[in-house]
Design a protein that fits this description.
two-stranded antiparallel ribbon; mainly alpha; 2 strands; single chain; about 60% helix
C-alpha cells in the first residue's frame, strides 16, 4: 500500500507593517467612542413617589384625587418659586420683619396653607390681589405678595378648596382661566418695569455666560397641571354623555334574542 502524504497548506502571507499603522488610529477612535458612551450613561434621577394612603381617599374619585394632588404640587411649585425669587431679590424679604430668607419663606407658607390674608395686599384676593402685587408702584415685599396672590387665585379657581371629594364639583373653565392668568402674570413679571425703570423682580436670566430658565420651567409646570385638569374635567362630562347614550342604545338594540 502506498502511504498518503498529508496535504500541505499554502503559507500564510506576512502582514505588511502598513496595516498596523492604519488600524492603530481606528482602534483608538473606537475605544474613545466606547468611553464616551459609558460616561453618557443616564444617572439616577430619583423615582416616582406614591403619597401615603389616607382614609379620606375612600370618598374621592380618580378625578378628585388628581385634582387634590395637582393642587398640592402647584402650591409647592409656587413656594419653590418664592424661594428662588427671594434668592435673586434679597431686598424683598428684607422689607419684612423676618430675620432671614428662610423665616420669610416660612411665614409665607403658613399664610398660603391657611389662606390667611396677606396684610400688604390690603384685603384684596384672587386676581385683584395679583394686579396689586404686579403694580409698578407696589412698595411692599413683592415676592410674597405675588406668590400669595397667585396661590389664592389658583385655589379660588378650584372653588376655594385644596382637597376634593365626591360631593365637590370643579369648573373646567375656571381652572383653564387660572392657567391663562399664570401666563399673563409671568409675562408681566418679565416685561413690566417699576418707577425706576428696573424689572419688577429678577427671575430668568439669559447672558453670554449663563442661561437660567428655572423660573420659566417651574411656572410651566403649574400651567401644565392646570391645563391637564381642565381637559380631564371637560372629558369627564363628555364621556358621561357618551356613556349615557351608549347605555340607552344598548338597552334598545343590544338585547339577547330568545333561542327556544
Amino acid at each position: 500500500m502506498s502511504q498518503r502524504t498529508a496535504p500541505t497548506l499554502p503559507p500564510i502571507p506576512a502582514v505588511p507593517p502598513s496595516i498596523f499603522s492604519f488600524l492603530r488610529p481606528c482602534l483608538l477612535l473606537a475605544a474613545t467612542a466606547l468611553a464616551g458612551c459609558a460616561s453618557d450613561a443616564p444617572t439616577h434621577k430619583g423615582e416616582a413617589q406614591a403619597a401615603p394612603m389616607a382614609a379620606g381617599e375612600v370618598g374621592q374619585s380618580d378625578v378628585n384625587r388628581m385634582a387634590t394632588l395637582g393642587m398640592r404640587d402647584n402650591l409647592e411649585s409656587l413656594l419653590r418659586l418664592a424661594d428662588k425669587l427671594y434668592r435673586r431679590n434679597p431686598a424683598e424679604w428684607r422689607k419684612t420683619s423676618a430675620l432671614s430668607r428662610d423665616a420669610a419663606l416660612a411665614q409665607l407658607r403658613v399664610a398660603v396653607d391657611t389662606r390667611t390674608p396677606w396684610p400688604e395686599l390690603q384685603g384684596k384676593r384672587d386676581i385683584a390681589a395679583l394686579s396689586l402685587a404686579l403694580g409698578p408702584d407696589f412698595k411692599g415685599d413683592r415676592v410674597a405678595a405675588f406668590i400669595y396672590a397667585s396661590a389664592d387665585m389658583v385655589v379660588t379657581a378650584h372653588g376655594g378648596k385644596t382637597a376634593f371629594y365626591l360631593t365637590d364639583s370643579l369648573d373646567a373653565q375656571y381652572i383653564y382661566n387660572a392657567a391663562r392668568n399664570i401666563e399673563i402674570a409671568v409675562w408681566m413679571l418679565s416685561n413690566r418695569r417699576n418707577a425706576a425703570g428696573q424689572p419688577l423682580l429678577l427671575a430668568d436670566e439669559i447672558t453670554e455666560r449663563e442661561r437660567n430658565l428655572s423660573f420659566e420651567r417651574e411656572f410651566g409646570k403649574v400651567i401644565g397641571r392646570l391645563d391637564l385638569l381642565a381637559s380631564v374635567l371637560t372629558e369627564k362630562y363628555r364621556r358621561a354623555v357618551i356613556t349615557y347614550v351608549q347605555n340607552l342604545l344598548g338597552g334598545t338594540f343590544l338585547q339577547f334574542l330568545p333561542v327556544r
